[in-house]
Design a protein that fits this description.
Elements: E1 4-10, E2 13-18, E3 24-28, H1 42-65, E4 75-78, E5 81-84, E6 87-91, E7 94-97, H2 104-114, H3 118-122, E8 131-134
Parallel strand pairs: 7-8
Antiparallel strand pairs: 1-2, 2-3, 4-7, 5-6
Helix pairs in contact: 1-2
């Protein structure tokens, strides 16, 4: 169990504190929903969480599997697309740019691991979240 605290600071800003570490994140409502868009919105955090979870889950698999796969430098790009009515996330497509040197035989296992990330598995079935992979070599 992880406890997080959220405090409303006014003007659609919230301060989120991660209980175990004390790490703090601030949010703001997006410009298209009465905010100033000065910080991540709550739905932006969903997209960021998905990208982070995909990369982290792949790294966990790589370490457990062989310890020879180096994912340093991998990047995830997530685009959040909102549905206007009802207002909710409609799509969170993820593009994963892989670092050089990933062997062809490791690619399928890494890609399968990405699709098992807990955030991806927790999304409502109506939220489309395709994951594509780009290999530089």
């Amino acid at each position: 169990m992880v406890v997080m605290q959220v405090v409303y600071k006014g003007e659609k800003h919230c301060e989120l504190t991660h209980g175990p570490s004390g790490s703090v994140i601030e949010t703001d409502a997006p410009k298209d929903n009465n905010g100033r868009g000065e910080k991540f919105s709550p739905t932006d955090l969903m997209g960021a969480a998905l990208g982070s979870c995909v990369l982290t889950t792949m790294a966990i698999m790589a370490e457990k599997d062989s310890g020879t796969i180096d994912l340093r430098g991998a990047r995830a790009r997530v685009v959040k697309e909102m549905n206007p009515n009802p207002r909710r996330i409609a799509r969170l497509p993820v593009e994963v740019e892989m670092p050089k040197g990933i062997k062809p035989e490791d690619r399928k296992r890494l890609e399968a691991a990405a699709h098992t990330c807990p955030v991806h598995r927790s999304l409502h079935p109506d939220v489309q979240a395709p994951i594509t992979f780009v290999y530089p070599d």
